[in-house]
Amino acid sequence: MTTPVIRSSLVLSRIPIVTPDVPAFEKAFYQYQEQLERRLMWTFPKWYYFKKGTVAEREFSKAQKYPIPNHRNVWFPKGVPDLKHGRDRRFKQDIILPKKNNDVEVSTTTDDGGESAASELQNLDDIGRPIKANSRITIFDEKNDQTSLERKLPRTLYLLIKNNNNNEWTFPSFEVSNDQINKGLHNIAEEGLRNIGGDKINTWTVSNTPAALIKHNNGINEFLIKSHIIAGKFNPTNKNEYKWLTKEEIQDIVSDEYYSKINHLLSQ
Amino acid sequence: MTLVSVRSFSSSVSLGKAACAQVKPVHHKVRIIKKNLSPRFPELKYPSHDIKSPKFRPYLTHLDRVDHHYHNVLESDLLLIGYRHGQQPIYGNKRRHWDMSSPYQINRPLRKPKGQIVPSQTINPRDTGNIAKLQSISINCFVKDAKQYPAMAIGATLQLQQITGVKPKPIYAKTNVPNWKLRPGMKMGAKVELFGRDASQFLSTLTEIVLPRIGEFNGISNRAGDRYGNIAFGLTSDHIKYFPEIELNQDSWPNLYGFDITLHTTAQTDADARILLSGLGLPFVGSERIPKTLLDDLTVHPYEN
């Protein structure tokens, strides 16, 4: 029987960049709860935020839609309004912010199309400009470029490498030779990653304690070291095939036996 | 006709008394909650999480970003960082038994721990059951000048309400210091304790907007902490203006009040709490002092008490 060989593997992950995708049911639940909260909220204290008699107060008051007050000769099909400080206390209060002059400018220039880029540049100084969120789906998602780090932003991605000998996808794995035995598993894995992926990568190894041990049938003990990519990119030096994959994609690509051993290490 | 002198444990009626006995042992210790007996306000009987209760307030209104980051990324990392092979519990200094050399020691409360008054905690090996988590954030705003100008305490309350969105509680002076003209019962400011999403919201405002803009802030001191995983630091009145709620409405705030922030975690030691908090985006500076007793967690202790 041959002596067991030790290997050190790196579970290199890119943590989620944006908030997770919320399923439709959860979205509906959150919306319902939010509406309830708005219904139970205190009335907006206009007298606190706007001094009486100022221009700002007048503009704010003009922008509001006030409910109709109760009157004895009027029939209200939705019930008698219960007004206090210009708010119907039975319902939520809608606060309408008065439109500023530069808001109007933005809307007119975007219609033209040609001037929009220039006006956006001008408006960058304005703190009150409307916040425009970037798309959660990037161009790499559309192209399904699995070598890119800018894909599947709400998910954790893991680096997988194709083994040239048996064409199997695994985590990057490095053999620990006898002269390296005192070096530390995490150092060997970090060094190995730089050997195959260049040194233009900044990683943070979570701990020198291995996260798992896989005992292979041929006597190899594979220790898994957990690490996160902070900056840079994996750039294979020897034309190795590599992919950044989510948990489900890993299940599709690796062998069932390997997946059953690493399944518990992968997060959403 | 004479009263029956046998006392029943279940009632005080047989004693001929109107109310329950106050002579020890008192058998009627069940607190009577009058709102449960009265038919007048049925909605007060609902628990506060019931939508029919007037106390009800929905709290799951949005996805909690910080909480998700903790569960998805931090939790497993913290487990791995804290794990040490062969870790042993570090037994705290507990209350001692009497040696029973005197008959008066029977049924006596246990002796104080050696060298201290309050017993200290046992630090258990880190495992899946005791991963550190941020429990709550408490903000304490004590205004020194409030003894001279009581209105300042109201201003401090309003400022906390504005920043956190949670109703603060007033704080009162406890001690009598004649030199400072401080008397017990004077309203001196406000405090607020944040849980769940409120805490997450405050933490992300702090780490993403406020602290990066404070020029002289390099990080929380590594010496901060109460030994049991609660880390505190302070912000002065100059730093408060960076909170967006204050910044966008500066005209309404002629006076700003600094406050102390305590981050309550379930960590067993301060070092563990610092690892958690740095994962949540709070930087730490300075040299770290770890008590010697916490360093020998790999040796098996000969005693258990």
From TrEMBL, chain A:
Pfam families: MRP-L46. Its main location: mitochondrion. GO terms for molecular function: structural constituent of ribosome. The keyword Transport does not apply. It is found in: Mitochondrion. Keywords: Mitochondrion, Ribonucleoprotein, Ribosomal protein, Transit peptide. It comes from the Eukaryota. InterPro entries: Ribosomal_mL46 (IPR040008), Ribosomal_mL46_N (IPR021757), Ribosomal_mL46_NUDIX (IPR033650). PANTHER family: 39S RIBOSOMAL PROTEIN L46, MITOCHONDRIAL PRECURSOR-RELATED, LARGE RIBOSOMAL SUBUNIT PROTEIN ML46. Belongs to the mitochondrion-specific ribosomal protein mL46 family. This is Large ribosomal subunit protein mL46.
UniProtKB/TrEMBL annotation, chain B:
Residues 187-284 form the Large ribosomal subunit protein uL5 C-terminal domain. GO terms for biological process: translation. GO terms for molecular function: structural constituent of ribosome. It holds the Pfam family Ribosomal_L5. GO terms for cellular component: ribonucleoprotein complex; ribosome. Residues 131-183 form the Large ribosomal subunit protein uL5 N-terminal domain. InterPro entries: Ribosomal_uL5, Ribosomal_uL5_C, Ribosomal_uL5_dom_sf, Ribosomal_uL5_N. Keywords: Ribonucleoprotein, Ribosomal protein. PANTHER family: 60S RIBOSOMAL PROTEIN L11-RELATED. Belongs to the universal ribosomal protein uL5 family. This is Large ribosomal subunit protein uL5m. The lineage of its organism: Eukaryota, Fungi, Dikarya, Ascomycota, Saccharomycotina.
